[in-house]
Amino acid sequence: MSTIHNPSQFNPADYVIIDYFDNRAPQFSGGSFQHAGAVEAFNAVRDAWLAERDTLFPERNCYRCEHCGQANVRWVVAAKHIPTGKHVCFGNECTFRLGFASQSDFRAAQARQRSEARAESIRRLVAREHFIAATHGLAELLARAEKSTNPFVRDVVAKLDRWGSLSSAQTSALKNAIDRDEQRAAEKAAEPQPTTPAPEGRVQISGKVIATKVVDSQFGATVKFLVRLADHNKVWVTKPSASNAERGWTITLRAKFERSDRDEHFSFGSRPHLIDEQPPVVAVAAEVAA
After folding, report:
1. What is the residue range of 99's domain?
2. pTM (whole model) above 0.70
3. I need a surface site. Which of 15, 60, 75, 87 has the fewest CB within 10 A?
């Protein structure tokens, strides 16, 4: 049937291109593997495709080129017919041949890229679900990972989401990191809580060195001690120059302390003066035995 869009009556000036569109509906590539996560993601992709189609082609007239009459064209263009205000469908090849002033090869490539990205997203998600189902204990491990704030854990999970699988070394490292973080959290939760504020001012303190760290500053590298006091408060203090203490030692010193404005049970110490220090009992016993 002859229309104003056919070659014999066609006037390119009467049209403006709205957008390019992939006329093939998204395909689920998971076969019989119907994991809920993959199906849910596919449904979201399909719904987005349907919404885009109905916006570009309100009359659902996207399956036949209005110019040449060819049916089942995959790459199509939604064009607005200015005199009538209607959206019409042109095949991509006809659009190139007609040479619309608003035609854009880049936008056509974008339509193809969007379609390929949707298909790849589904493929990776299905691969991910396959991998989780085939790897003993991974589903439980990922559930534990959701609660983690560890950047390494998040990075490994992101790699799984991106590639659909992990190496055995990555899976093992993920488990070790989560186990370690959970153990530290349990130990911290089991620690007695202080009932009085951390020290402030120039005072003498005594406690166990539970961590050490080398810190670079404008004055050079200095060693810092994290000390847990007998009342369970903690202080972060510079290592005294005369000290030989390491992690696990008990140390007594005098320093100027400033209480944290975020945690009343934590203080920062400076200008320390060593009074006494003792290695762990186990270390002393080993020296005596030797």
Report:
1. 7-128
2. no
3. 60
